[in-house]
Design the sequence.
């Protein structure tokens, strides 16, 4: 049986909050590439068995303890913590970005940072609780070094873009997509 595609929130939700992304990607309203569509907060469908996305999920999960350690005791200048979690809506799976995180044992909660498209019971801004095992990606910002850590799924999406455009965006974000 063929699995339905997973609905990935726009790259905007993958990268930063929509407000910050607008500052980074300003001026892209009439564009057609994945990165440019994301600036308009358009959803991106990715097949559920997409190898690059699965690799991104695995990379994020392999370093999840490091992320959670920083979330529990953030070093000076580190912030902007967010995760991506999979949420089912019938047979669809939608990935939502959740920020303003808090941890209580093995449970986490935070604010949904993108507008759900298939999950009609949730809205951007809602508080959402989830388990550690639901996390498929994470990110945080090292403000003094102007560097973004994690965000493996954004790297997978950017790999589909023209190399010059993807490299420019990675540079502006301070995001390294090397394994």
Sequence:
């Amino acid at each position: 049986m063929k699995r339905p595609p997973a609905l990935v929130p726009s790259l905007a939700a993958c990268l930063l909050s929509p407000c910050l992304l607008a500052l980074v990607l300003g001026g892209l309203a009439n564009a057609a590439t994945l990165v440019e569509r994301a600036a308009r907060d358009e959803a991106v469908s990715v097949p559920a068995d997409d190898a690059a996305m699965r690799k991104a999920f695995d990379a994020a999960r392999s370093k999840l303890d490091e992320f959670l350690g920083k979330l529990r005791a953030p070093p000076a200048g580190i912030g902007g913590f967010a995760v991506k979690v999979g949420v089912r809506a019938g047979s669809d799976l939608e990935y939502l970005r959740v920020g303003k995180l808090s941890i209580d044992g093995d449970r986490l909660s935070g604010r949904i940072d993108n507008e759900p498209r298939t999950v009609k019971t949730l809205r951007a801004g809602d508080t959402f609780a989830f388990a550690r095992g639901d996390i498929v990606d994470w990110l945080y910002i090292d403000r003094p070094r102007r560097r973004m850590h994690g965000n493996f799924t954004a790297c997978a999406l950017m790999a589909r873009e023209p190399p010059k455009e993807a490299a420019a965006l990675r540079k502006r974000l301070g995001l390294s997509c090397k394994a």
The CA atoms of residues 24 and 172 lie 7 Å apart. Confidence is low (pLDDT under 50) at residues 1-31.
